[in-house]
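Notes to self after the Tuesday call (sharing in case useful).
The group wants a holo model before anyone commits to mutagenesis around the pocket. I volunteered. Ligand is iron/sulfur cluster. Logging inputs and output together so the record is complete.
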Amino acid sequence: MSNLDKFKEMSKGLDLAQAIAEADRCLLCHDAPCSEGCPADTKPAEFIRKLRFKNVTGAIRTIKENNILGGACGVLCPTSQLCEEKCSAMFKSQNRPEGADRPIQIGKIQRFLVEHSWERGFEVFEKPEPRSEKIAVVGSGPGGLSCAAELAKDGYQVTVFEARPEPGGVLRYGVVSYRFDLNFLEHEMADVKALGVKFQYDTPIDSKNGAEKLLKDGFDAVFLAPGLWDAATIKPEGKEIEGLFSSVDYLAALRDGRFEEIAKKIKGKTVAVIGGGSVAMDCIESAVRLDTKDVYLIYRRSYSQMPAEPDERIEAQEAGVHFLLLNQPLDYVTDKKNRLKGLKLVRTRLGEPDESGRRRPVEITGSEWIMDADVVIEAIGNKALQESCEWYPNVKVDGKKLIKVDPETGKTSVGGIFAGGDIVRGPALVVQAVQDGKVAARAIKEYLGK
Amino acid sequence: MANNVDLSVDFCGVKFKNPFLLSSSPVSNSAEMVARCFDAGWSGVVFKTLNSDRLPIVHPSPRMHCVHYGSKKEMAVQNVEMISDRPLKDNLTEFLYLKKNYPDHPIIASIMGFFTDEWAYLAKAAEDNGADILELNFSCPHMCIEGAGHKVGQAFKLLEGFTAAVKDVVSIPVMAKMTPNITDMNEPAMYAKNGGADAISAINTVRGISSVGLDDFVATPNVFGKGAISGTSGPAVRPIGLNFIASMAQNDQLNLPLSGIGGIETWIDALEYILLGASTIQVTTGIMHYGYRIVEDMIEGLSDFLAEREIKSVSDLVGKALPNLHETEAFDLERQGITQYDLDKCIGCGQCYIVCQDAAGQAIEWDAENRRPNLIEDKCLSCMLCKFVCPVPDLISYKEMPQDWKRQETAVMDKNMEKDIKLEPFTKEGPDECVI
Ligand SMILES: Cc1cc2nc3c(=O)[nH]c(=O)nc-3n(C[C@H](O)[C@H](O)[C@H](O)COP(=O)(O)OP(=O)(O)OC[C@H]3O[C@@H](n4cnc5c(N)ncnc54)[C@H](O)[C@@H]3O)c2cc1C
Ligand SMILES: Cc1cc2nc3c(=O)[nH]c(=O)nc-3n(C[C@H](O)[C@H](O)[C@H](O)COP(=O)(O)O)c2cc1C
Ligand code: SF4
Ligand code: SF4
Ligand code: SF4
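Result:
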């Protein structure tokens, strides 16, 4: 397999024997803290128990009924902060039987079961009685897909409007393909399509008041899940710099037709990635895999304040990324043709904790310096598109243009319009978007019942 | 390697350098294999059961299947294998090779015939070619001809007659290998003794079925669309083997050396057989699972056990657990106890609570906030189920309670309904034993 093929395919998950061995370690806890830790109520304690008692089809059913993107979540959930965080099998004690000092690998079992359902052609859902109510879903990311599936299971007529040529949102245009590949996404999409959900691609709902108009165009309810597709930047407004990418653009390019172009652009170059979260990690790791000369991670606080998961950080360092901590980017250095040459940094030290509880970076005056770089990728946060609120002018949003909803129902300030996913929470998780979709779908059913 | 403790045993006047033997099966099928097992440390071998070449022997294919438990492999093995399919001449030539190259390792020849002359013929041939002991296979569980295999083991007169026929023609010791597919092994063992047997070995495989195919409804091993009730061996049958060895060892009238077989994998398994009366032990499935090398750990483990306790020889341990083995009526029911919990070690899984609720005395309350069990002492049945499921060793233990302590009786759901029951008190006097 060539390097590029490896880039486009994720590594194999557990096989049946490994999944059973892992399920065998589960203590089948009475109160299952793992299930409590799952934001989408995927019920890990239940599907692991079912696997343990050889009820494999039942285990698949539990996952898919509760989480239509159970496969994606099994792969992408930061499980050590969710279901696996309080797993009883992890509790350390010198009295634990050997090998039990680590949590059950719930995500891996979940992924296995979903892949197994595809392999054996097991269909979880029966064809529902069709109903007449029509629902429009804006955005085919995890939030939109979850809401659509939840409604379609009960026979509602759901149409998903997607601005881009293909469905999946961040799953297709964000996450790098060696973490989550197209083949996997297409299988999971097939589960959604089999429920009868209709998709319209290349169909942005971005005209003035376009989202609200859907209610007048024959839809009984609308679910908004357009996600966050603008990128924060330190670049002065209006200036175009060749060699500067936002993480949104860079990662999307890796997954659409521009892959070869990007790969050529950064091969053999010095690349700097700005940021300390999971998205930054995706950017640096992919850059390393594309045969760059050097990859730097530039982060304004220190190692332990980084939001990225510990194993992501360790993997990045193992892969040879240089962590340049306690440095704050100020500006870019370009040549006359606006080609990137380097970036201006200032050293920082850690001060008092800020609202996030992490110690605040304080600039050290006079410590500015210039670092040479050919390519810079900014991964300092995704945000709502500037113009997004014009699509739904009557829907209340906050200062960051995030939609305000009732968390119990996903209801916005406009009757019949619901919202969820990143556009409500800010940068969040796939599994949380799934949950928002489910919550809103339930509220929509109730709303339509009235 | 092990310390220099002498593990040697005397079995029917034959010296073995340790009590660990191969039992008759695929693991002892050829001299090439047996030579390697001797090199690994096994002291002797019961060679794969000889046949007289009168009838062709063909093994069914496939001939085994196994029982997994969760992800644990080979908890038991199921086989429909026949006795040796090699010509008698080849097997006897193998004896000569082994006697020449491994003179200190006794060979026990397992034989099986269908009628007296055949038994005698095989016995003589084995003795003439170097066998140190004979083992009469009265126990192969998938022989379907009356008068062969385990059918002999169940027809005691035949068993006695065949033993006597063999004894008539050989001077080496004769051991009878018993089938566990009966209720009491003492009876056939006494018949074997009357026929002249010098020792008893047990058990052969237990009749069983490992699994049934869900697509074709054929029991396994599936021999081209046909299944059969066949022989189960391995760890799952160990309690059955121990039962038969112990009950024969307790029988003063029998009083023969015993060779223990069934589910042995470790020195502790072997020692348990010894403590219950066996003076040698034999292994097949343990080797089919892990290979000959397991004997290294048997030797080292048993040696260290003897050394640590300053026990001089294995024979000092034979039957040592028998004086403590009683009928259940001998138990002192006045003494009662409960479980106790060292909750500092608890990880809060709640398995104890589940089993106590659903299979015991409902003696545990669940403290959901702290994720801890809370024992209501006077409801504990001391069944110890909670201890069995608890993942933390030694967290739950048994504690005897004072004589005046009383366990709560199991509550009746609705005492008010007592007035509606249809029941006369039982008043008849009866004998203390069962009569019709
Ligand atoms: C690079 C990256 C890596 C990530 N890695 C992980 C991870 O490993 N694990 C994890 O749990 N989470 C991860 N996340 C976060 C996760 O992907 C998001 O929380 C999740 O995708 C949010 O789902 P969503 O449905 O709200 O939005 P999105 O996935 O953003 O989907 C929104 C969809 O709406 C479409 N759209 C937008 N505007 C319109 C419009 N006007 N009309 C029609 N369609 C429109 C978009 O094209 C898009 O397809 C990652 C995010 C990024 C950016
Ligand atoms: C595949 C197989 C073939 C066997 N063949 C014979 C045999 O030919 N003669 C015999 O006396 N016992 C035979 N046995 C029984 C074993 O010698 C032994 O008594 C039994 O397997 C129990 O011991 P274990 O649990 O260590 O395997 C066979 C067992 C197996 C599994
Ligand atoms: S917490 Fe861990 S051990 Fe307990 S049920 Fe969940 S996965 Fe199993
Ligand atoms: S969906 Fe994610 S958080 Fe929930 S159980 Fe599965 S892997 Fe864990
Ligand atoms: S089974 Fe053991 S570890 Fe689990 S809750 Fe009970 S006492 Fe604690």
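Two things stood out.
Residues 342 and 395 of chain B are 5 Å apart (CA to CA).
The first strand of chain B starts at residue 9 and ends at 11.
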